[in-house]
């Protein structure tokens, strides 16, 4: 096998507390951001509301667009521009529904008419900027019931993923600790990505959730490869200390890990820079997930096994 790194002898186990510290800072920063902002910034898929995407031949300024919508009585909205393509994206949420945990009162007067908001915004833009050739590219509406259902299905998907991975890894490697270690690294990757999205004020949409589940599968696959090699080393090097066996296993698979992850990173970077606005957040989540997933497989999962065995050994003695 071609190796870009040969005969490495990094002490990954010895530096485990540095890795734990970096992960702690990353996770705590994300948690702090989530607490300060009252949770993730949910997209329309979960909260319910409208999304209108309009392209101009000669786009107005952000201030002009905002003034046009506000002056015609449009309630609170979010405005995003894509200057390179002359596109404006307008998002409006259902009143009283800021997160997928609660519901909107069906008796709310805004409820029955909110699905018409997209057409109303399109008409306002056409009336305000008739000489700028506005073209409606996309108009979406998601009701509160659909948003709540999507949130429940997403939560169930993550729970079943975590439970299934613990069972599979525990069965394959005959140790529940290994299964827990794999899921710890996986949860680390998912929460780190959600935290970065919160820090950067990016929305969590169904597309981003798909990226998170992809990251989870990719991360656990990378971890299992290292675990499989570690299991073989434990059989061959029975007299060696556990930290030596773990370090040798990670170092021996390091070249494979870097080559594989570099190829994945190149693909998702291509999506990020050239994939367009629609998959921009998906690609960003995949880029970050590819990096943090590689790091967690090496710096979190295997050192976790060593730390567990070390603590258990102390208790036995």
Question: What does this entry look like structurally?
Answer:
This protein is of the alpha+beta class. It has 2 domains: 16-42 and 147-316, Multidrug efflux transporter AcrB transmembrane domain (Multidrug efflux transporter AcrB transmembrane fold, Up-down Bundle); 49-142, Alpha-Beta Plaits, CATH 3.30.70. Helices cover 65% and strands 10% of the residues. It has helices at residues 16-36, 44-47, 62-71, 110-113, 117-128, 144-173, 176-199, 206-236, 242-274, 280-316; strands spanning 41-42, 49-55, 78-82, 87-93, 135-142, 203-204. The strands form 2 sheets. The chain has a 4-stranded antiparallel beta sheet with strand order 3-4-2-5. It has a two-stranded parallel sheet with strand order 1-6. Strand 3 and strand 4 form a beta hairpin. Helix 1 (16-36) crosses helix 10 (280-316), helix 6 runs antiparallel to helix 7 (176-199) and helix 7 (176-199) packs across helix 10 (280-316). The radius of gyration is 24 Å and the shape is elongated. It starts with 15 loop residues before the first helix and ends with a helix.
